[in-house]
């Protein structure tokens, strides 16, 4: 391998190619090129393996599709390695479950470079913009994505080409290049007469070149084509252009029409000095303005939680974009969420606007409908911006919206104002919190630098919320006695954080901002919101909310949507509603202050019951259940989310895990020890399938402590078995044997024969971990015999698997294979994919030990595919280690090196002990891990 090379480039706008400088590098057939294109289109993002297979083969993939993709990825990695060597900025294809990720600078991919050039051109003067856009157009070397399977499609690439071409023509029109454009555009319009933007550009070029009659004839041609093909007249923009040409009053410049003789109205308040971040939001506002310039309806609603910076964004953008609106800007503060004043009525706001437009006070009509009519007639046809800040409702806003096209309206509100989307085709933009770097920059603008770590800690504790960040920055700037560390310490305590973000005025702090939103909720929705604060839910779905509030699922869903519409929760996914971190703290304070102890106790009881019941239902879809806990009858089907498959169960546990831990901690604090250990044992199943050492240990220690405090012998026994399972999974021998022996003593004391078998299985595995193989095999074979006698299939499969592991480590490979095959048969009968993976991995290792490398590779690839589809991340790391060893035994050193590198990436943090084994393997291959 070369020590260094040059980073690769990727061409998608034409034949799909990998380039070393300007030299095309052969990569293989259509399937490999299609894979390369799919990864490059979503550069630096994970593309799921299933998505790749669907794109390459459609609905009829071959049985070996996954293996083909694995092989093609390996091939592309080798090609990239040959081109780039170890260049630090080189492209890499990473395995990132559930698929793969191409990491490279986007500018090295022609598609993303074209987008970047288009974005840069939008902020440049016409001459520079034309140059940038011409460069972008030159990136197209033929039909996009040529040479890949027909099932790989990206229609957005043609949209991008049209956008780039249209923007370049607009720039050339402003530069007066009319003759050249007539030659360029005429054949395009003949070929596609329904492309109204191109037709309009050609009409302008013809008109300004002195060919007014040809421009009018072109409109008639396009009009006939649209009527014949679509049955409608051309769009508003083309009709407006035709009228201007017909009247011979089309201005020379496209970007601005003649201003009225009187000075335009300018009611904008001052803007903040600098706007941190918000590039995507500003781009959205720019796009909305372009719609207005094109003659389309342009009403935008900027919404978000209190303190998110809605008004700051809109006002800052309006100052920057003022030249787009030569007839002026109207601004009104609607006081929709002002705690000291009622919302302004439309009649008052119309008066304000009419006076601003030059109507004398005595000329303002008495009747509201007459004011509306006068207002609309005065701004009709003008190019104006109307900003309606802090609106309460759609009804408050509608009379103030400009009529027709060419003008633009922006509304800010804590509510989404969905009604405006229905009645006025408004576009919605929900503001999120700032990116960490932008949040730090905002603090530093106010208070100066205080060290990278401190300012990042401050920004994180402020939840990246602009209002909180400004308060923190102002506090630091106002007092030399306050250091950033002092403020970090104060904000670090959740109990004092909101108080630290209060300011002197009664209505300007973070708590006050949230309180105004809360007080505006309907009473039944406010009650539901309060109950969510009892257990500090990280997220809320309709079933959990129904359980907590004692209401139906349909009512809960409606309440959550109202809370999302008021931006007190953010809808982050289907039936997933998440409060901002500071809203969570505010909500906890509310619940403590406004709900009595009996209400809080009832909410906690319902929460525990919900997670016990649904967690039990979910775990039964994931793993064989050997403990006697059964909560399946606690809730009805209507009260629980649908969990019909392994994937449903996995998704539920993943989405609810943080909530489950919060409920566990709340029940622990309330002394509900029996509930705690039972819930911990139910949740143990999920972490057994998806093991994370710290979280699993915390869960089990909480459960064991609760079982001991409750004096429940059964609980103590099962939680000791749970703790032993952690030690076995991560090969941590300390305490493992003692836990298994103590669990066996307790099981014997209460005479539970099935529990005794489970304890014996863990005891045998603990002995294996300690290297006492003969004792381990005797113990585990006794467990196998007992389960054969009782017909207990769940425990028999577990005993066979653990016995095979002990025999493998003792060098008894043939006996181990027999037990492992029997275990695998049971695993598949029970549909237990987690155990199937373990059995396949063990069979792969055993096959390698007896020299059956082809069988070993077959077993391990089957298991790898299963771990990827089931998202068993830690297990995938273990399998990659096994696969590397198998490939190395077969002299495939490059393949082994690749698999070890993948294993190390997965295991480095998840299992340090196994990661050490991987590093040793890489060192043996001459690699620096």
Structural class: alpha/beta
CATH topology of the domain at 279-430: Rossmann fold
Radius of gyration: 33 Å
CATH class of the domain at 279-430: Alpha Beta
Low-confidence stretches: 253-261
- In CATH terms, what is the architecture of the domain at 279-430? 3-Layer(aba) Sandwich
Query: Given the structure, what is the number of helices?
Result: 41
CA-CA gap between termini:
16 Å
User: Average pLDDT value?
Assistant: 88
Residue share in helix? 55-70%
| Strand segment tally | 14
Main sheet characteristics: 6 strands, parallel
CATH superfamily of the domain at 279-430: P-loop containing nucleotide triphosphate hydrolases
> Which shape, going by the Cα principal axes?
globular
Beta-strand fraction estimate: 5-15%
- Spatial strand arrangement across the major sheet: 7-9-10-11-8-12
Concise overview:
With 929 residues, this protein is of the alpha/beta class. The protein is built from 41 helices and 14 strands.
């Amino acid at each position: 391998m070369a020590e260094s090379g040059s980073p690769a480039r990727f061409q998608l706008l034409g034949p799909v190619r990998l380039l070393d400088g300007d030299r095309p590098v052969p990569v293989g057939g259509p399937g490999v090129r299609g894979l390369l294109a799919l990864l490059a289109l979503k550069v630096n993002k994970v593309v799921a393996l299933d998505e790749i297979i669907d794109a390459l083969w459609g609905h009829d993939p071959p049985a070996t599709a996954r293996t083909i993709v694995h092989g093609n990825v390996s091939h592309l990695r080798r090609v990239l390695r040959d081109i780039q060597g170890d260049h630090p900025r080189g492209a890499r294809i990473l395995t990132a479950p559930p698929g793969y990720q191409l990491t490279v600078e986007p500018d090295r991919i022609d598609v993303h470079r074209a987008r970047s050039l288009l974005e840069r051109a939008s902020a440049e003067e016409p001459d520079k913009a034309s140059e940038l856009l011409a460069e972008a157009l030159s990136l197209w070397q033929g039909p996009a994505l040529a040479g890949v399977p027909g099932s790989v499609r990206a229609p957005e690439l043609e949209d991008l080409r049209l956008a780039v071409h249209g923007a370049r023509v607009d720039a050339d029109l402003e530069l007066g290049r009319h003759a050249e454009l007539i030659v360029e555009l005429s054949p395009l319009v003949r070929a596609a007469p329904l492309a109204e933007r191109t037709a309009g550009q050609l009409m302008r070029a013809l008109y300004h070149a002195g060919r007014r009659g040809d421009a009018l004839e072109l409109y008639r041609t396009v009009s006939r084509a649209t009527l014949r093909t679509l049955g409608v007249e051309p769009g508003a923009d083309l009709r407006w252009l035709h009228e201007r040409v017909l009247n011979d009053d089309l201005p020379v410049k496209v970007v601005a029409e003649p201003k009225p003789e009187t000075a335009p109205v300018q009611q904008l308040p001052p803007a903040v000095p600098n706007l941190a971040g918000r590039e995507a939001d500003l781009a959205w506002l720019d796009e909305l303005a372009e719609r207005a310039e094109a003659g389309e309806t342009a009403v935008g609603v900027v919404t978000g939680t209190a303190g998110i910076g809605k008004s700051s964004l809109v006002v800052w953008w309006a100052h920057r974009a003022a030249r787009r609106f030569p007839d002026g800007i109207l601004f009104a503060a609607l006081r929709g969420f002002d705690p000291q004043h009622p919302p302004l009525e439309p009649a008052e706001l119309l008066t304000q606007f009419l006076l601003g437009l030059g109507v004398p006070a005595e000329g303002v009509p008495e009747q509201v409908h007459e004011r509306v009519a006068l207002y609309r007639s005065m701004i009709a046809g003008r190019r104006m911006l109307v900003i309606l800040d802090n609106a309460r409702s759609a009804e408050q806003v509608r009379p103030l919206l400009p009529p027709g096209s060419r003008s633009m309206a922006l509304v800010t509100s804590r509510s989404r104002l969905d009604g405006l989307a229905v009645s006025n085709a408004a576009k919605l933009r929900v503001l999120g919190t700032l990116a960490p770097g932008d949040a730090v920059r905002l603090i530093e603008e106010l208070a100066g630098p205080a060290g990278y770590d401190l300012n990042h800690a401050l920004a994180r504790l402020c939840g990246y919320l602009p209002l909180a960040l400004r308060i923190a920055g102002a506090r630091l700037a106002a007092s030399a006695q306050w250091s950033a560390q002092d403020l970090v310490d104060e904000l670090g305590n959740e109990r004092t954080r909101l108080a630290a973000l209060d300011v002197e005025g009664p209505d300007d702090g973070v708590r006050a901002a949230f309180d105004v939103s809360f007080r505006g909720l309907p009473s039944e929705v406010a009650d539901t919101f309060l109950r969510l604060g009892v257990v500090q839910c990280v997220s809320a779905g309709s079933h959990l909310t129904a359980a907590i509030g004692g209401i139906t699922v349909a009512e809960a869903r409606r309440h959550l949507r109202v809370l999302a519409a008021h931006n007190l929760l953010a809808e982050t996914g289907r039936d997933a509603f998440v409060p901002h971190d500071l809203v969570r703290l505010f909500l906890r304070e509310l619940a403590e202050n406004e709900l009595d102890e009996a209400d809080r106790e009832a909410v906690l009881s319902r929460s525990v019951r919900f997670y016990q019941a649904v967690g039990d239902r979910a775990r039964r879809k994931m793993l064989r259940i050997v403990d006697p806990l059964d909560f399946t009858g606690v809730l009805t089907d209507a009260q629980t989310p649908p969990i019909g498959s392994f994937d449903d169960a996995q998704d539920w546990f993943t989405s609810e895990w943080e909530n489950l831990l919060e409920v566990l901690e709340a029940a622990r604090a309330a002394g509900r020890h029996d509930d705690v250990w039972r819930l911990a044992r139910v949740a143990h199943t999920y972490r057994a399938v998806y093991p994370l050492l710290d979280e699993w240990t915390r869960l089990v220690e909480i459960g064991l402590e609760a079982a001991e405090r409750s004096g429940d012998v059964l609980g103590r026994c099962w939680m000791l078995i749970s703790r032993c399972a952690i030690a076995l999974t991560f090969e941590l021998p300390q305490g493992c044997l003692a836990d298994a022996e103590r669990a066996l003593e307790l099981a014997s004391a209460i005479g539970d024969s099935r529990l005794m078998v489970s304890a014996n299985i863990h005891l045998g595995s603990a002995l294996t971990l300690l290297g006492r193989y003969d004792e381990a095999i005797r113990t585990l074979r006794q467990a196998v015999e007992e389960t054969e006698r009782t017909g207990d299939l769940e425990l028999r499969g577990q005993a066979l698997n653990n016995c095979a592991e002990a025999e493998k480590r003792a060098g008894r490979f043939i006996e181990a294979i027999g037990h492992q095959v029997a275990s695998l048969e049971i695993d598949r009968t029970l549909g237990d994919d987690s155990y199937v993976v373990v059995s396949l991995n063990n069979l792969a290792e055993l096959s390698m030990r007896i020299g059956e490398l082809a069988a070993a590779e077959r077993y391990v690839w089957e298991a790898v595919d299963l771990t990827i589809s089931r998202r068993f991340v830690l297990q995938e790391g273990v399998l990659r280690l096994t696969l590397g060893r198998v490939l190395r035994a077969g002299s495939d050193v490059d393949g082994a090196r690749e698999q070890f590198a993948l294993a190390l990436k997965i295991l480095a943090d998840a299992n340090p002990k196994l990661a050490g084994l991987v590093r040793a393997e890489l060192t043996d291959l001459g690699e620096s891990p």
